[in-house]
Amino acid sequence: MLDWTQLEQSCNNCTKCNLHKTRHHMVFGKGDINTNLMFIGEGPGEQEDLTGVPFVGKSGQLFDKILNAINISRDEIYIANIVKCRPPNNRNPLESEKKACLPYLRYQVQLIHPKIIVCLGRVAAQCIIDKNFKITKEHGIWVTRKGYHLIATYHPSALLRDPSKKRDAWEDFKKIKSKYIEVS
Ligand code: URA
Fold first, then answer.
1. In testing the pocket of ligand 1, which one of 19, 56, 59, 89 has its CB within 8 Å of the most ligand atoms?
2. Which residues line the pocket of ligand 1, CB cutoff 6 A?
3. Given this model, what pLDDT does residue 1 score?
4. Are 40 and 121 in contact (CB under 8 A)?
5. What residue ranges do the domains of the chain occupy?
6. pLDDT digits (tens, 9 = 90+) for 146-178
7. φ and ψ of 26, to 5 deg
8. CB 31: neighbour CB atoms within 10 A?
């Protein structure tokens, strides 16, 4: 079993898929590794690739606003992505890239052992909850698996593209806050 530092080291040295060829930084994840609340996005965008930090670009700023509104700080959660290196031009990660990268995320989940895992967007939900997950129909619905409380909501970038989804996302985040209080 690798410890946290060794795991981050292997991700830094990873060449399992072609994304390593174009990355500036591998984006491991950030936050409190003793948290009960973990968020999982899709993959780094341009700003994340440049800084090595998840959710710092436009969608990250919206994510911060939402967290703020439910009185949760970034320091008390952990946030990571399905793939740790930026897909060129922000395309969706390929099946092969997700498959190569997922063991690292699984390892992080095992080490953090959060009580709640929130998938941000369809790509994360289809990897973590169900391969046929329909984000418009199934967001905001709790699933319990292996003792983890799983839920998905819209990715902040989807909310930026279509602000009419914000109302539903807000309901999801209120549920997430209640569950977080319940399990803490
Ligand atoms: N979008 C994601 O899914 N993850 C990030 O880290 C940034 C944007």
1. 59
2. 27, 41-45, 48, 54-55, 57, 59-60, 81
3. 84
4. no
5. 4-183
6. 999 999 999 999 999 999 999 999 999 999 999
7. -80, 140
8. 19
CATH architecture of 4-183: 3-Layer(aba) Sandwich (3.40)
Secondary structure (DSSP) of the chain = ---HHHHHHHHHT--SSTHHHH-S-----EE-TT-SEEEEES---HHHHHHS-SS-SHHHHHHHHHHHHTT--GGGSEEEESSSSPPGGGPPPPHHHHHHHHHHHHHHHHHH--SEEEEESHHHHHHHT-TT--HHHHTT--EEETTEEEEEE--HHHHHH-GGGHHHHHHHHHHHHHHHHHH-
pTM of the model: 0.98
Question: Rounded to the nearest 10 degrees, what angle do helices 95-112 and 4-12 cross at?
Answer: 160
Q: How many CB atoms lie within 10 A of CB 164?
A: 7
How far is residue 127's CA from residue 95's CA, in Å, rounded to a whole number? 10
**Pair of tokens at residue 65:** 């606003």
Distance (angstroms) between ligand 1 centre and the Cα of 54 equals 6
| Residue found by looking up tokens 């590794």 in the block | 33
